[in-house]
Amino acid sequence: MALMPVSDALAAVLAGAEPLPDEMVSLEAAFHRVLARDVAARRTQPPQAMSAMDGYAVRAADAAKIDAQLTVIGEVAAGRPFAGSVGAGKAVRIFTGGVVPAGADAVVIQEDTVADGERITIKEAAVTGRHIRPAGVDFREGDVLLRQGTRLTDRDLALAAGMNHPLLAVRRRPKVAILATGDELVMPGATPGPGQIVYSNGYALHALARLEGAETVDLGIAGDTLAATTSGIRRARDSGADILITTGGASVGDHDLVQQALKDEGIAMAFWKIAMRPGKPMMNGRLGAMRVIGLPGNPVSSYVCAFLFMVPLIRALSGRQVIHHRRERAVLGRDVGANDQREDYLRARLDMHDDGTLVALPVNHQDSSLLANLAAAQALLVRAPFAPKAEAGSPCEVLRLPV
User: Fold this and answer.
1) What is the model's pTM?
2) pLDDT under 70 in the chain at which residues?
3) What is the pLDDT of residue 255?
4) Counting CB atoms within 10 angstroms of each CB, which of 115, 145, 163, 390 has the fewest?
């Protein structure tokens, strides 16, 4: 099979990816969940005109002149309205959040008055509407303020609460099962034997999936046997996973058994080679409703492919409004060489010139096994297939990595 362009591969991964069913959850459980339907206010906020300051509710006409004197006839506090009305020459003591009493159309802050028993003297002329929050200035009943597809922030939750919603309809979290393969892998803390390495890929993959709102299932490490790999695939299916991510064994060597195991389980393969660097040996297919992405084993290849393909798939299944990574314009911080037929994703650090220009500085070593350079990178510098060499200062595009 010829190498598939990255854009075509992403289209294949996302083909038919519809938002998962919705469920009702409490506000406490809704943080970073994705709304399944629009949310309209159930009330008007504030429901009545309220004072924005501590002071006196007055008729602006009575307090329009310095040294005007008014008689205080009552008091308003938040949650304790005044039952009467403010007539000519009268005032009501009012505190922040108190309902502006009938007849009053302005608030004079307490610093602009001199109090003497039940009389106040005005020291700053009142202005109609000053220091009053009109009814509905925040929102009105029926206003749609949160839209379907929104990933809920902390501020969104406060807004939903203010709109009087104790529960919200959100999309079910995609379930991502992650299976590592390879006899050479040992867990962190173990002492590797000859030819063995410490397993690291899964920790980044789990974290990346959770960052995007997914639930993850750890299927552990399968040895390099068809039986072990097949068992892992079946456990993913039995767990109800929406996405199975495998890491390692995606190439075509004698010990790379993932593709064979997937095919034996009836998974229809969309592709298994992509025209990108790092990450050429990546696979994609489906087993019923479960989508499968077979990532390379090299740590950088595994992560970059997960960032480019797994993340948009999670977003699509979550019902997010925006599923694709946003490319940003930058300039090169150093020269880069010409590219071949594969689209390059170079790890890069970011800097900012005094004039606001974003600068992308590719790390010196781009080998797909170098975890330290991956951890130090802040972005992926995208280089198109057959891009000519480019000098420092030339325009480029980057994809920011999560922080």
Assistant:
1) 0.90
2) 1, 250-256
3) 47
4) 115
Residues 302 and 337 in one domain: no
Alpha-carbon distance of 295 to 258, in angstroms, equals 10
- In this structure, the answer to whether residues 167 and 195 fall within a common structural domain is no
Give the whole-number percent of the chain exceeding pLDDT 90: 90
Task: Give 255's DSSP letter.
Answer: T
Residue 259: per-residue pLDDT: 85
Which pLDDT tens digit goes with each residue over 336-353? 999 999 999 999 999 999
CA distance 209 to 214: 5
DSSP strand E in 305-394: where? 327-332, 343-352, 358-362, 379-383
Please name which of 269, 271, 296, 291 lies closest in space to residue 281, comparing C-alpha atoms.
296
- 71: closest CA among 44, 89, 96? 89
Give the Cα separation of 223 and 80 in Å (integer).
70
Domain closes at, from 79, 107, 133: 133
Residue 218 tokens read as 């750890």
Q: 300 is in which domain, residue-wise?
A: 6-20+173-318
Cα dist. 87→119, 134, 245, 274, 401 in Å? 15, 20, 73, 79, 63
Q: Checking DSSP bridges between strand 119-122 and strand 55-58, what pairing results, if any? A: unpaired
> Is 1 contained in some domain?
no
Q: What is the CA radius of gyration of the chain?
A: 31
**What's the CA gap between 117 and 124, in Å, rounded?**
19
Q: Which two three-digit tokens encode residue 207?
A: 């974290």
